[in-house]
Write a structure and sequence with these properties.
Layout lengths: L2 E6 L12 E6 L5 E7 L6 E7 L9 E5 L5 E7 L2 E7 L4 E9 L2 E7 L2 H13 L18 H21 L6 H24 L12 H15 L8 H14 L10 H11 L2 H10 L7 H11 L6 H15 L10 E4 L4 E3 H7 L4 E7 L4 H16 L5 E7 L4 H10 L9 E3 L5 H6 L6 E5 L5 E3 L8 H12 L1
Parallel strand pairs: 2-8, 12-13, 13-14
Antiparallel strand pairs: 1-4, 2-5, 3-4, 3-6, 6-7, 8-9, 10-11, 10-14, 12-15, 15-16
Helix pairs in contact: 2-3, 3-5, 5-7, 6-7, 7-9
Length: about 450
């Protein structure tokens, strides 16, 4: 029996239409095909696994990805990744092999392109120290690094040109553009993810000037927001422009200001969307939306508005407040009574289950967080979507904390609350302020230091 398991599920905020992209696997039984991709909103990576039957197959396995936009789909086997570019209506045939130099062979609409793209990626990999957990420091020879990135970029362009006769012109252009965006991202890497060992104010003058030249060149090119590597480079340029204001982190207000003043069109719309933290700066982003005042229409602007309105309207959705919650004494409560019980407190809700590994991994962090805010007006509530009450109570007994300020509750997976939040997947965290206003429907995990900082701010408001 064929089934799809979501190992890292993210629900796209955008309604996507057919025809989508069709994947056909022609592999032996017990071969697993993993893949992941991102949509245009960077809502995260969608990862899935196609598991074939344990009995000999008599027909291929089919799966359709619903999308109205092109996607880079990355297939994975062990430590190798095989990127495939596909457009709506395309069909990709995946054939498993046992050659470690090429685990998969592809056919169909984009077959020959995907294998060439993989070969180019493998042959001329642009190594970025910061992305390999090798931190940038001021001791790095940036002249050497700059020249190395240029050599890699030139080599990749030459490789693509040598094989362009195998490709349609549109795909050759795509590979060249993607190589350029990756090259820009490699040079911007010190600014995109700043190492504690790097002082941006001491970056070599020549390196800063070359990035300024690259920025002017980049923004003169056609906008290409459908390409995830373009979007990444675009965001990195905004951080580079704020290099002099970096102080143990970039200010969201500064990033939004640069996004609005330095860019235009869909680039501006995307950056306003990208740099708007879901849980804060609501009044700030609404001010920018008012400045636009209908002068710009974009899916990113519409999504920003929808996301802001969603928080305001969440508890007004039909059935959400009346959703039943069962406590550990197996007494019935509702979401409405839960909110009343903790009125005047910051409420942090953890959606979990006994079978959820990532959920359980966060529990020690949750313990530390609860100890830090013990005696303060913060309530920690744990809502499980277990379908077996016995396993739920047994899992509670194994948690690294004995009691919680907000208690434990059991929630039906088909309830209005679970459906409105689209859980599973889990873990999922919701943050509500002392006035009962939803701050975030997808809050930071307990282990994220930003959460503690945010709780402190909400306590002081």
């Amino acid at each position: 029996m064929k089934r799809l398991i979501a190992s890292l599920c993210v629900i796209s905020y955008v309604a996507q239409a057919n025809p989508g992209i069709t994947l056909i696997t022609e592999c032996d039984s017990n071969d697993n095909v993993f893949f992941f991709y991102e949509d245009a909103f960077n809502t995260g990576i969608t990862s899935a696994e196609i598991i074939l039957s344990n009995t000999p197959r008599t027909s291929p396995s089919y799966l359709t990805i619903p999308t109205s936009e092109p996607l880079f789909i990355h297939f994975a086997k062990e430590t190798e990744f095989y990127p495939v570019y596909a457009e709506p209506g395309d069909t990709i045939v995946i054939r498993c092999t046992y050659d470690k130099d090429q685990w998969f062979h592809f056919d169909g609409t984009k077959g020959e392109r995907s294998e060439l793209h993989h070969a180019a990626r493998k042959a001329i990999w642009i190594h970025i120290p910061g992305f390999q957990r090798l931190p940038f420091t001021n001791r790095l020879n940036f002249d050497y690094y700059y020249n190395l990135m240029n050599e890699k970029y030139v080599a990749r362009k030459e490789y693509i040109a040598q094989h362009s006769h195998f490709m349609r012109p549109g795909f050759t252009e795509l590979l060249l553009n993607t190589s350029y965006y990756k090259y820009a991202s490699a040079l911007l890497a010190p600014y995109a993810s700043v190492s504690p060992e790097l002082d941006l104010k001491k970056m070599p003058d020549f390196y800063v000037q070359r990035l300024l030249d690259l920025y002017n060149e980049f923004i003169s090119r056609p906008q290409d927001l459908e390409n995830k590597y373009y979007r990444f480079a675009l965001g990195s340029f905004v951080k580079f422009l704020n290099r002099d204001r970096y102080d143990n982190g970039y200010s969201a207000a500064d990033l939004l200001h640069s996004s609005y003043t330095e860019f235009n069109g869909d680039n501006r719309a995307y950056l306003l969307y990208f740099f708007t933290p879901e849980e804060e700066n609501e009044s700030l982003i609404r001010a920018y939306l008012e400045k636009l005042n209908g002068t710009q229409t974009s899916k990113y602007i519409e999504e920003l508005k929808r996301r802001l309105d969603e928080k305001q309207q969440f508890f007004k959705q039909e059935g959400v407040l009346a959703t039943a919650l069962t406590d550990t004494l197996f007494q019935k409560n509702t979401v409405a009574s839960l909110l009343r019980n903790y009125s005047g407190k910051v409420l942090y809700i953890d959606f979990w289950a006994s079978w959820c590994g990532p959920c359980l991994m966060e529990m020690p962090n949750s313990k530390s967080l609860q100890e830090r805010f013990k005696g303060k007006d913060v309530a920690f509530v744990f809502i499980s979507i277990d379908d077996n009450p016995k396993k739920w109570t047994q899992a509670i007994e194994k948690l690294p904390f004995d009691d919680v300020s907000g208690g434990h509750y059991l929630l039906r997976e088909d309830s209005p609350l679970a459906t409105s939040l689209a859980v599973p997947p889990i873990p999922r965290y919701v943050l509500i302020d002392k006035q009962g206003k939803v701050i975030s429907l997808n809050a930071h995990r307990p282990g994220n230091p930003k959460l503690a900082e945010q709780l402190e701010r909400l306590l002081n408001d």
